[in-house]
Amino acid sequence: MKLFDVYPLFDINIVKGRGCTVWDDNGQEYLDLYGGHAVISIGHCHPHYIEMVGRQLDMLGFYSNSVINRLQAELAERLGRACGYDDYQLFLINSGAEANENALKLASFTNGRTRVLSAEKAFHGRTSLAVEVTNNPKIIAPINDCGHTTYLPLNDLAAWEAELAKGDVCACIIECIQGVGGIRLATPEFAQGLAEACKRHGAVLICDEIQCGYGRSGRFFAHQWLGIRPDLITVAKGIGNGFPMGAVLISPEFKPVYGQLGTTFGGNHLACTAALAVLDVMEEERLVDNARETGSYLMGQLKALQASCSHITDVRGRGLMVGIELDMPYKDVRNRLVYEEHVFTGCSGTNTLRLLPPLCFTKAMADEFVARLKKCLDAQ
């Protein structure tokens, strides 16, 4: 049997990681400014994480959600305290797409509607409802194209208000910092206006914090820069530092009904232990503060490079979620970074490098990255 060939791959086999560094099977070291799609939050192979997950695995890896799992309740209490939503409810699943699926289902169960407003360039996942609210027709199969979604420009409040006024909108779903969409930031004016309009017209506001959340922006959630409290918040990626996990944070206005939502693997013992270890390290090492401080420093250094390098046309982002827009396709620059300078980054669109390093990223690493990037751009 062969693998189903849907991923274009770098010809590199990563076999080891520590902190913000990974190594391939030839012993070559790489600086990791991508963290496996923003998944690595506390750093690769953090010793506390390894110890906690190993200890739990030695006791019990999995049992079903038909019995009490006190780790789930502990995680709900700890997460609520850490993010400032201790009055919300927590539903645990396995991925970001699944988190968005369940959030959209819960919204529709609540108001009985089916139409969703989503932003142009949005990415919310690859499964049924999640892909339908993703603004990329190349990955929406005909079976997913059910006509539920209206795409609107991010930050065009008048356009969103006009659609909400029609009275048939189930939910509005937004990334407060678009990841795949090119590190585009929602404005406070837009977010606050949208939140108020959703309440006025009976629609549910969902903030997709799967990539921009969990400390990456320099606050626990990116929407907390904007002065809003969404009805539903979806998380994944950094919650488990590589262990597959997702969750929906649910306003107390939503009342749970037995059987309404469900999952086999969600909230299992190993996943909860991984998530608790992540919160331990985030709090002990002040990683949210580090994301804010180091991210600000990194953006400052990149803007200084922009002033002397015509290939950089824009630097944007918040915390350790940064986009570098180039005056050329990113492909050659990204390949030079990987194969010559041994740095992993992400990308979006055709011209933007996307930086999503672990939240333990340091100013010294920022300086090193900028120096290596300069060498690649000078060679163009």
TrEMBL record:
CDD domains xrefs: OAT_like
UniProt KW Isomerase keyword: no
Matching InterPro entries: Aminotrans_3 (IPR005814), Aminotrans_3_PPA_site (IPR049704), Class-III_PLP-dep_AT (IPR050103), PyrdxlP-dep_Trfase (IPR015424), PyrdxlP-dep_Trfase_major (IPR015421), PyrdxlP-dep_Trfase_small (IPR015422)
Top-rank taxon, per record: Bacteria
Cofactor: pyridoxal 5'-phosphate
Keywords: Aminotransferase, Pyridoxal phosphate, Transferase
A GO term for molecular function: transaminase activity
Classification via PANTHER family: ACETYLORNITHINE AMINOTRANSFERASE, MITOCHONDRIAL, AMINOTRANSFERASE CLASS III
Protein family membership: Belongs to the class-III pyridoxal-phosphate-dependent aminotransferase family.
Protein name (Swiss-Prot/TrEMBL): Aspartate aminotransferase family protein
